[in-house]
Backbone:
């Protein structure tokens, strides 16, 4: 496409024709990294965020359980304990990025 645009532009200058509209190049989107895993009774997933991160979880056990998620906000890591009943699906959004997930 770049070569075609150069040829069309060069031809327009040579012939003295009007300006030729050349399609702009599409911006390349950077895909987010998605992370999935299991810790104890939980299946979880999250995608890299810019200022906040949301973790999605599912307690697959037949009892209430806890999941410990460490969020890094700047220089500090904060532990957030998520408690979910048997079979519960949920999510939690916090400022920063997830640094680790573990069974509590």
Residues:
């Amino acid at each position: 496409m770049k070569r075609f645009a150069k040829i069309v532009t060069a031809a327009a200058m040579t012939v003295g024709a009007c300006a030729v509209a050349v399609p702009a190049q599409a911006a390349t989107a950077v895909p987010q990294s998605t992370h999935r895993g299991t810790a104890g009774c939980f299946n979880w997933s999250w995608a890299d965020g810019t200022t906040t991160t949301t973790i999605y979880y599912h307690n697959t056990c037949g009892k209430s359980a806890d999941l410990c998620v460490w969020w890094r906000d700047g220089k500090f890591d904060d532990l957030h304990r998520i408690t979910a009943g048997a079979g519960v699906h949920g999510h939690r959004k916090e400022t920063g990025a997830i640094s680790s997930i573990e069974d509590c």
